[in-house]
Amino acid sequence: MMALLFGASDKTPEDKILKVTLAYNHFGRGLTQRLPAVRFGFVHVVNNDYTRWQMYAIGGADGPTIISQGNRFVAADGACKEVTKRMLVTEKIWRKWTWRSEGDLLLNGAYFRQSGNPHWAKRYKGYPLIKALPAKHVPHLTLFAGASLNCKAGRPC
Q: Which residue of 7, 94, 125, 131 could cross-link 39, Cys pair, CB 3.0 to 4.6 Å?
């Protein structure tokens, strides 16, 4: 199952100035990708809990800036260990995109392929970013995240 897509269309110019903060969520079992997927814009991913994604956790196309801070990434056994995925573009191009991991906790072989400007904060000075807490606190921060739907496999929720 896919979860979040920010900046869905290259025909929507407003998507190019997109600024999103994704904080204090738990993305768990059964999710495969797009946690989020981003086209264009700036996304701050802070203090989220990612457990057992299948394909990738954070993806993007068309040059987004993604700043990941204080998240916990626990890769699934037998699935993709890479947190990030750049779509429909060569490495020569995506190497210029700013995708940074700062203070993230990467477990069970999870890894985040960083790219772009390591001094990104100078460019985005003045953006109202949520201050990341240490990633070791994420399980507590996200303990009550999400809805409790009591869903059963094969039955509508």
A: 7
